[in-house]
Amino acid sequence: MIQLEQHTAAGTLTGSYTAEFNGVVDAFIHNFEANGEVGASLCITRDGATVVDVWGGVADVAAQKPWERDSVCVVFSSTKGAVALAAHTLVSKGALDLDAAVASYWPEFAANGKDGATVRMMLDHSVGVPAFREKLKDKACCDWDYMIDRLQQEAPFWKPGTRNGYHMANFGWTVGELIRRASGRTLGTYFREAIAAPTQAEFWIGLPESEESKVAPMIPFKPVRGAPISAFTQALISDRNSISSLAFFNQGGFSPNSRECRAAEIGGGGGVANGRGLARIYSPFACGGTLNGREFVDADTLAAMGEVAVATHEDATLLIPTRFSLGFMKSMDNRKSQGVDKSSVILSGPAFGHVGAGGSIGFADPDERMSFGYAMNKMGPGILLNERGQALVDATYRALGYSANTSGVWRKN
Question: Which domains does the chain have, with CATH numbers?
Answer without folding.
Answer: 2-412 (3.40.710.10)
